[in-house]
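## Example record

The block below lists the input lines for one assembly entry, exactly as stored, with component labels intact.
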Amino acid sequence: MDAVGLEARAAALGTRSIKTTAKAYAIDLAISMVDLTTLEGADTPGKVRALGAKAVHPDPTDRTAPTTAAVCVYPDMVAAAKAAVAGSGVKVASVATAFPAGRAALGVKLADVRDAVEAGADEIDMVIDRGAFLAGDYLKVYDEITAVKAACGDARLKVIFETGELSTYDNIRRASWLGMLAGADFIKTSTGKVAVNATPANTLLMLEAVRDFRAQTGVQVGVKPAGGIRTTKDAVKFLVLVNETAGGDWLDNHWFRFGASSLLNDLLMQRQKLATGRYSGPDYVTVD
Amino acid sequence: MSKESTGAAAGRLSVFKTYKLYVGGKFPRSESGRVYEVTDSKGQWLANAPQSSRKDARDAVVAARKAFGGWSGTTAYNRGQVLYRVAEMLEGRREQFVREVAEAEGLSKSRAAAVVDATVDRWVWYAGWTDKIAQVIGGANPVAGPYFNLSSPEPTGVVAVLAPQESSFLGLISVLAPVIATGNTAVVIASERSPLPALSLGEVLATSDVPGGVVNVLSGRTAEIAAPLAAHQDVNAIDLAGADEALAKELEIAAADNLKRVLRPQPVDFAATPGIDRMTAFLETKTVWHPTGSLGASGSAY
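Predicted structure tokens for the full assembly:
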């Protein structure tokens, strides 16, 4: 990988000016792509219900706001999340496989996945074994992903690489192919639990990977940057990357997601600004 | 940029200062990249100042909101110490401010020095008020019942301040100091024609102990920057000292939408002793009721 070229291209695409109707479109599209996430040790069923309500009606004062794509929770909160979004079309995603470290035996990881699927998860976000990957044991990583994929049944599988721990762009590219060959429905940058999460450069790299993978195999794979995307401006930059790299086919919440929590409020405040002409504030969106 | 020949000794290149905004504890240029020419009272070019856009205003509000929790939560005594520290820093830059005020307002050196002295004294005066204002406007209220009833002032929040157009330094500090002394955070629009003392004040604040974001200084066209601030849903109050009649009316209408507190004073003599009106303008009153104790069988707790 040409690191300098990759970062320069990601930065250049980030300078596009998206205004007025294009901005309104981008904001609504971004809202519909949010995997509204709460992954805290202190999560309660009540908090998950509140999150579900927010996913269904992001802006209680404006019912024209689209729903988010999904809510993303820990496996033991799937049932509560499922009940909260029932009938709305909002999916429930669950992290699994000893998230976020992934340091557990395969049997434990698979049990974690089955638990989430049985509770009704529509999507599973697994973490790869970075230790095995960095040690060069790619086959172990591959086998683990295929085993998890089998355990998922009908649930879509998102594979998290934790790009911040993979050290190089070459590793991210390699991991992307590994994940897609092993049957990932989505490739995802990070857990949100480490210092470096989704960046424009690593997301651009993964978008190039899914584009090339489809060109070679005909199979389309989704991309989910997660962690560190907090502002509308950032989100719009990512959408520009999607459109310019993978193409319009990915501009849909079936193929592109944002793993985020605070991003949604900023999107809603910008949406209100476009609707009213006034800058909005945190008093006018829900407290999470 | 034709002043190479002035001021410097022969053979030495002039080092001009790049005036920048002060937002969130940093010194950014305007997001728009624009500047405008600042001249002295005789029309002689002094410097280029950033011409802020509405996005700079928005960024400043975000910074001010972020700083509000910490600043309003600081004890009043500590706020007083921090503000006194600002006065010390102002004093240390006295020569610079005398020059800037003299150029901006067309004053003689001695008149400008008197203005700067008065300004520093004004800052010290407000620094002393931080832990006294609660006693003066709060306290115990007499009520007809077995309760303690206590009122205590609390800061309003993020205050947009349109600094006076004519008095570029004394006027500026006379409207800014009361806002932050009581625990609010401020977004200040400097005098449009004479913004340089305000922009230099940013450098003083950055080297005092005032947390970044408590004061944010913008320069540019007052009307352009004030409009989005007046309409902003996350600004709690606005001081219209620097707005003319027509602009003030327009801003008041915009400010009504989220029920901002609006201070629209009559012409003020900034040389006179200010009183506490500007502090109370940006304070809310919280009142609590507390039982004096359980009532015994005799009907009295005492």
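DSSP finds ten helices and ten strands in chain B. Chain B has one domain: 45-291.
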